[in-house]
Amino acid sequence: MMTEMDKSIEELLLAKDRRRDLRLQKLEKGCITLSFNLNIPGLPKSNDSFHTFFSVCLKELKNYLLAHRIVINGDTIHCETDAAGDFFLAEVIDSDYTAIQIKNLCETFETSHPVGRLLDVDVVDEKGEPVSSGKAKLCFFCNNAPAIYCMRKQAHDYAAMRMKVELEISKYQESKKKEYVCKQLAMLATQSLLHEVALAPKPGLVDRFDEGSHTDMDFSTFLNSTAALSVSFRKIADFGYSFSGDDIKEALPKLRLIGLEIESDMFAETNGVNTHKGAIFLLGFSIFVSAYLLSRELFTNEKFISVIQDMNGDLVARELGKKLYIGKETHGEECYRKFGNKGKGIRGEIQAGMPCVFQKALPVLHQSLDKEEILNDRLLNKGLTQALLAIISENDDSNILYRKGEEVLQELKDKASTCLLKSKNKEFESVYNDLIAFCKEKRISPGGSADLLAVSYFMYSVNRQLVSND
Description:
The protein is built from 18 helices and five strands. By secondary structure, the chain is mainly alpha-helical. The chain has two domains: about 5-155, 2-Layer Sandwich (Alpha-Beta Plaits); about 180-465, no CATH class. Strands 1, 2, 3, 4 and 5 form a five-stranded antiparallel beta sheet that branches.
């Protein structure tokens, strides 16, 4: 009676026979053929993890071939998963390379790949002859003898080999996940700054058409500053993703150091103009915590808020309640001393878990944008304007408080609230223009609210693009 193992081996052999027949069918056209599969010891030859790994490596192989101007005929592609594992076969067209040159390039792809010894790219020439480079691959398991020798001698335990293969694939997939998440976080942070400054019109703020209440900066200043910041956002994401300390507060010194480096880059690019200091502070924390949670597949808005609060503790008392520097009192220290909790500024916002973002702006953005698959300029302008008004109506902007006092700040907040209430009727344009005129007349710029808007859109984008809602 045939055992399950016997059946599996028979199916494996039949699958290999079908692959041989497929290759023979390609010979009738006299073309170079290229195939790709994985070297997986034991059975089964494929599972969800192996299949995902195969798909990623196949995409990398196709890009590698295309970079060398080796073109696969898309009409001849055969790709399947059978008892012999995952398999790709296709004809090569429009190539200036010979079959042996293609084989040598494919071998370079294998040897330079982090887990290349699990990859097997075979080339068959126009006459149907398998092309060999003449080089024997070392065994993946022992890294000592040729792989073919260890296979024929059954030199290693299949269970142990399979465990090592699964571990290496898992490590590689994790590295690809980190690369993708960190790249996306850096890109989304840059996008959030660009969308914030491009939003127009805005009350008292720089936008794509107007300098608002500013005389020392304009749209191009912000574009240049954003470009300078974007370079280091990836560094913050990498740090957050890889952080493994027992106490999240251990990350603060290095995070501050990166922040200071980014500030220097900003000031160098803007000739000393402060375009994004608040955004660096808020986005720095936001990128770090997002990467930290996404690496552990723990991201939720609630968890994000909790980690932000754990990291910062009693930040206001620590940084504003006592002097950190010898000399003149900073604006933040003076504002906190004069106005108490109302003067906590950006530190108070982040200590509280950014309520302006999560309680005010995000609900507005979700309501405005969630139903749309593609976010065009008109939709974004409407959604971001409403989110900005929600923030201004709530935010005790310490810069306005310091320069203009409580009365002007409260009037600004009240006008923003009125705009928000009338955002869906015909009176909106009139009251919004009144808010813009008020900011110009008083020469105030709610820059802290603009920073929070950028963070709000960043958090919205992280939820939309990087967090699974399954």
